[in-house]
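sanity check both lines:
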Amino acid sequence: MSLIRGTGLRKTFGDFVAVDGIDIEVAAGESFGFLGPNGAGKTSTMRMIGATSPVSGGELRVFGMDPATHASAIKARLGVVPQTDALDEELRVRENLLVYGRYFGLSREQVRARTGPLLEFAQLTEKTDAVVESLSGGMKRRLTIARALINEPSLLLLDEPTTGLDPQARHVLWDRLFRLKRDGVTLVLTTHYMDEAEQLCDRLVVMDRGRIVAEGSPRSLIAQHASREVLELRFDAADHAERVADVAGIAERVEVLADRLLLYVHDGDGALETVAARGVHPLSALVRRASLEDVFLRLTGRSLVE
């Protein structure tokens, strides 16, 4: 069953096109990601799915319903984790869940019954009576997720869920999301972290300037748009473009960066042996597996877009 289906989906703000005719489909139980640079249209798409921003064009169905006519019914079945936590920082942790649960028409008894298990899930049991303002960034993020689960949603929307968190907090949060997926909650998230997309997403789309430029599982995207391995070579050169001729014909593709050459190859160690056999001696060499970041940068470019 498709929980989300969008066809020719568009979102415009005056003359600016934020989302430019994309097709998306998300199945029940799937962990689906929107990957892209800032301004790619990820958040605009999520807001349309969450029935908080009207569709400008195309067709969108969430739980089989049209957000334009059934927004309340859709929101009742959603959990939403926005980019910013927007918690009531003057209230205690448990009070945040109580207030949010009441928005969904839950009784105080229902909220109390759900608060304990949710705070345990979020590893916040010891902070039940703490004022939210005193929590760390990672704790606040976990509380935001716990709050989004108070209505027991079947679909959870997460917009940049780990932005600003330290590595330890990110991994704790990933573990919580793995547990939700295991329990049957469908996850839809936006991110610009490559490792996060590889860790969390069964399938994803890469967006750039409002359009989808690639779609598939992380592994299939790497196989389609990158080589098996990457050989990184650093030379004592003011301009590494001057050394491209030294490695001509060795790689499927060579990318010139300010401080190194990237050789996209099937066998990194074999390519390095070929480089040495030519009498070429870089300052340093690194062989690594191709990653989703290689795919991302090839599809969206390395230039900063504001």
Summary: The longest strand covers residues 2-13. The longest helix spans residues 167-182. The chain is about 35% helix and 25% strand.
